[in-house]
Amino acid sequence: MRLRWFLLLSSVLLAAIGTTVVVADRLDDQSGGGDQVIQLPGGESGTSTTDAPGTTTPGDTATDVVAPAAGEVAVSGTVTAVHLEGAVLDPRTVPTPLTLVSERGFGNGGEITGVTIAGKDSAIVWDGGRPFVLSSGPGLVLGAVTADLATDGVRLTLGDDGHSLAPGTYRLNTPVAVGSAGIATSRDAVSFEAGPEATFEASGDTALVLGPTGPHRLLGPGRVHLEGRLTVTDSTGARRSATAFDLDEGAFDLLLTPAAGGGWTVSATTDAP
């Protein structure tokens, strides 16, 4: 009788152990895709996860950037300083109302030619100092400019190239000198008609500031200097972090976008420096 009880208890105990092992194995199988603990530099520990293709983990500084063509690089991130030379705004026409700024001084300001005032061929000279306010008209068509990131937006210095006025009727609310038939007179404001050959020749530090109202696209060729938290991607898809990026001369296609929390982000494709 005692032998029978011993055999019965032994059978129950073995069955319980077998069930426990099976349950443990199944739990291990279900958790096989979880985090793995890795040793970080300095002896700290952290977790590492395997990302699906095309995804990033929270806190990952890399951005999803398509690898550029051979001989090019892609640059993305946040910028604290921008300097572009030979840049062309896209689209080139800046609609009115618009304001140009310039310090008063020799060599600053600008001149408008190819316009008529009261039916007479005229030229308009602005010597800087007070803002140049085009309150109405089709718009200023920009040539190449120098672009810099400023506290109030993207500052375009216009003195590097000639610019033009889209044909139409304009109103300028700025004291200027108006020349017609060899006679120059001062005006506090003036209305004029711009023909197909109307030009605006900026000089010195004359600039147009584009505010943080939307993205601004600028095209090369020219010089590029960027500073900030940047990611540079080459044509193989390899990425590296950088705090500065320089292209002495080459093609570029660059988009500056105001960031939601302040500051600016950049997304650009350039010739490889």
- What helical percentage do the residues reach? 10-25%
Radius of gyration from the alpha-carbon trace, in angstroms: 33 Å
SSE order, one letter for each helix or strand? HEEEEEEEEEEEEEEEEEEEEEE
pLDDT < 50 runs, ≥5 residues: 1-63
Beta percentage is: over 45%
Which oligomeric state applies? single chain
Largest sheet: 20 strands, antiparallel
Q: What structural class do helix, strand and pairing data support?
A: mainly beta
How many domains, as an integer?
1
Determine the number of helices (DSSP H or I, runs of at least 4 residues). Answer: 1
Mean pLDDT: 82
Cα(first) to Cα(last) distance is 92 Å
Assign an overall shape: elongated
Précis, in short:
The chain is 11% helix and 53% strand. It is built from one helix and 22 strands.
Question: What does it look like?
Answer:
The chain is mainly beta and 273 residues long. It has one domain. Helices cover 11% and strands 53% of the residues. It has one helix and 22 strands. A hairpin with a 5-residue loop joins strand 21 and strand 22. The longest helix is centred in the first third of the chain and has 29 residues. The chain is elongated and about 65 Å long. The relative contact order is 0.20.
